[in-house]
Amino acid sequence: MKQRIQNMRDIQHFGEEGGVVPVIDVASTSTFLNPADMERTFHGELEGCYLYSRHSNPSVTAFGKKFAALEGTEAALGVSSGMAAIATTLDQLVSAGEHIVASRTIYGGTYALFKNLFPRRGIRVSFVDMDDLSAVERAILPETKVLFTETLSNPLLRMADLKGLSSIKNRNGLKLVVDNTFAPLLVTPADFGADVVIHSCTKYISGASDMISGVIAGSRDFIASLIDINSGSVMLTGPVMDAKIAHELYLRLDHLPIRVEAHSRAAQFLAEKMEAHGVPVFYPGLKSHPQHRLMSDHRNEGFGFGGMLTVDCVTSKRAMELATELQNNKFGLYAVSLGFSRTLMSCPSVSTSSEIPEKEQREMNLSPGLLRLSIGFTGDLETQWQRFQSGYDRLLKETR
Ligand code: PLP
Q1: Atom of ligand 1 nearest to the CA of 153
Q2: Strand 370-374 relative to strand 344-346: parallel, antiparallel, unpaired?
Q3: 9-33 pLDDT, tens digit each
Q4: Fewer CB near the last or first residue (10 Å), C or N of the chain?
């Protein structure tokens, strides 16, 4: 990963007057001095020309180059949201009559897309427990095209066995698509054979909870296919990244490694304190996490185990009472999303996973009282722990 960060750093785009940052290229359309070149560009005979920003834009291209260097892929394309990244990727890879095998512990929005929208397009999705590789194999049909998983699942923080999934997809001639939103820099799915890696940049990549955006990373051919003027799912459905957002993200990538490290350090510190205090905490950096070893086998050195942890409060009422207490004592903010500099807390069973019916939530062991914490890095860690401990002790410890 050190080398990848260096490669990313060495990609330099200068401003028009030699500025240390590139200009934001806001033009929606570009001039052709020779009209014949426009025709050749449309027909894909001329490379390197910008035509129209739904197809390509210099600021979006610059962000894509830096992101691909970091994610270890040939190319990357910024899009308007994480959901756009997932939907357009799968639109490109799967057609009516075909089938996807997806992890059942995934973000509620992705679950709803697969469960409710894809069948309307004639695409079937089987949800399986990705921990169980033989169940994955059994779910594969002659029509299956894609295995879809999150690296670290939302909200259960289950680590996907990317090595195992990759050998299954190779044996069956499938594509492995990985949503790496929870594990930027921690894990590089392309190293284990992922064909396409997507992120909601709304989260850690942005880091400031001030925008919605996404990115798709993969082979040069696949990324080019997304913007093909006749058959590209991004080109033809249009959820492109705005040039101003691309510019912001381009700059923020430089401090992503520092931020991820700081999130992980804070989360590891708090998780250890919580565990020692008897809090039912779940964090991949703790030896008690069932996939601590698996994550250790997959992760890049130097970035820890990420900023996400969960505390099981058994009922949603108690989770919300604890969150209210922790919000009042300034430990964190009760809000969905993650990857912000401050701690964000939410109760997935009644928010980001509420699209998943209760019965299925139970089957996947999603406790109604799960409190998901995206640990921020601002503030003094001891003070943060004292705030958590006092809130927890006051509300929950005696009643457990
Ligand atoms: N993937 C994961 C793992 C998420 O948690 C989310 C949103 O929470 C998304 C994708 C969707 O991202 P966006 O809100 O940027 O569309």
Answers
A1: 3
A2: antiparallel
A3: 999 999 988 999 999 999 999 999 9
A4: C
CA nearest ligand 1 atom 14, residue? 82
d(CA 32, CA 144): 44
- Helix residue ranges per DSSP H, the chain: 2-10, 35-42, 58-71, 82-93, 108-112, 133-139, 162-172, 220-226, 233-237, 243-253, 256-276, 292-298, 316-328, 358-363, 381-395
Q: Report the predicted TM-score, pTM, of the whole model to 2 decimal places.
A: 0.96
Q: Which domains occur in the chain, in start order?
A: 2-254 (3.40.640.10), 256-399 (3.90.1150.10)
Mean pLDDT over 262-275 rounds to 98
Report whether pLDDT(326) > 90. Answer: yes
Q: Ligand 1 center to residue 350 CA distance, Å? A: 16
Do the Cβ atoms of 26 and 34 come closer than 8 Å?
A: no
Q: How far is the CA of 276 from the centre of ligand 1 (A)?
A: 32
Residue 355 C-beta-side C-alpha neighbours within 13 Å: 17
Please state the separation of Cα 91 from the chain's center in Å.
18
Q: Which atom of ligand 1 is nearest to the CA of 154?
A: 3
Q: Which of 157, 202, 242, 355 to mutate to test the pocket of ligand 1 (most atoms within 8 A of CB)?
A: 202
Residue ranges around ligand 1 (CB below 6 Å): 81-83, 107, 109-110, 150, 154, 179, 181-182, 200, 202, 212, 214, 352
